[in-house]
Specification:
single chain; 297 residues; alpha/beta; 8-stranded mixed sheet; 39% helix
Length: 297
């Protein structure tokens, strides 16, 4: 396969003749960094677009963004420029591999991690005016339990928590699920085991989380599957490509396509709402549920 990258940095706009409906919004999160969360986001979104889903990949790791780097894109503008008034939201929109739409965030901009409610309103309005019909939006969040992470997860229909076989990863994943459940009212979480040596290891990781969550939390955990530790995935990252494109027959690429297939089978979001604005409106319309903040475990 040629080392040339199929993606470019050409801005894209709303396409014609696309079905208008309520898009599926999937937030990808993790309790700690270093578990491959952004790689999951990139490959899930790429697998979805390859399966015929009109897909938008939104980078909300607003201070340490790297989706553009992972896909070999060179954005002229990012969300930081939108908030600074230097451009419109449509100016940030990039075309990635096979028509994947990407909204990049900024790296090294600490102020972007401290957005106000008013700034969220501005983002809502910007997306509302974009008028971009899509089937699925994949939201790559920052690692941890910062307020922005919780808000984006709360606004999505489905939350995928990525965990790997490290004690800190399991502990921090539980902490994230606990806060999402108790403070933000998230009642269903998809768990994805990443970088596993074998399928049994992934199921064991899920079982650990499920046992403690079933005991202390009012939340349903679903096992989404596992992504194997794969040398081909590492090579794809070095090439700044999604492994599902660079090495489609590799074990990790096969697993990502299976994850994408499963996500498309989730129950569709209710209501006739179309385009993207409904998702961002939820960022400011759903108050935090702080009544149980003092609970233990």
């Amino acid at each position: 396969m040629s080392d040339s990258h199929p993606a470019n940095s050409t801005p894209v706009f709303a396409a014609d003749n696309l079905p208008a409906g309520a898009p599926r919004v999937i937030a990808v999160a993790s309790g700690k960094g270093g578990v491959g969360k952004t790689s999951v986001s990139v490959n899930l979104a790429t697998a979805l677009v390859n399966a015929g889903q009109r897909t938008l990949l939104l980078d909300t790791d607003l201070g340490l963004a790297n989706i553009d780097v992972m896909l070999g894109l060179s954005p002229r503008f990012t969300l930081a420029d939108v908030f600074a008034g230097r451009c419109e939201l449509r100016d940030t929109l990039l075309e990635g591999p096979n028509g994947l739409m990407v909204v990049p965030a900024a790296s090294g901009k600490r102020h972007m991690t401290e957005l106000t409610a008013q700034q969220h309103v501005g983002l809502v309005h910007a997306f509302s005016e974009l008028d971009l019909p899509i089937d699925t939006m994949v939201v790559d969040t920052a690692a941890g339990i910062a307020d922005g992470v919780l808000t984006f997860c709360q606004a999505a229909q489905d939350v995928v928590v990525v965990v790997c076989d490290e004690p800190a990863s399991v502990t921090d994943a539980y902490a994230l699920i606990k806060v999402l459940s108790r403070e933000r009212g998230v009642s269903r979480v998809q768990v994805l085991a990443n970088q596993v040596q074998h399928a049994k290891e992934g199921r064991q990781l899920f079982d650990k989380l499920e046992r403690v969550s079933a005991r202390f939390l009012d939340v349903t955990l679903n096992y989404l599957g596992a992504i194997p530790r794969d040398e081909w995935l590492r090579r794809a990252i070095q090439r700044q490509e999604a492994v599902v494109d660079a090495f489609p027959s590799s074990p990790s690429a096969v697993a990502f396509r299976d994850i994408a297939r499963r996500s498309r089978q989730w129950q569709s979001p209710p209501g006739p709402r179309g385009h993207v604005e409904f998702f961002l409106e939820r960022l400011i319309s759903q108050p935090s549920n702080d009544t149980t903040r003092g609970a233990t475990a």
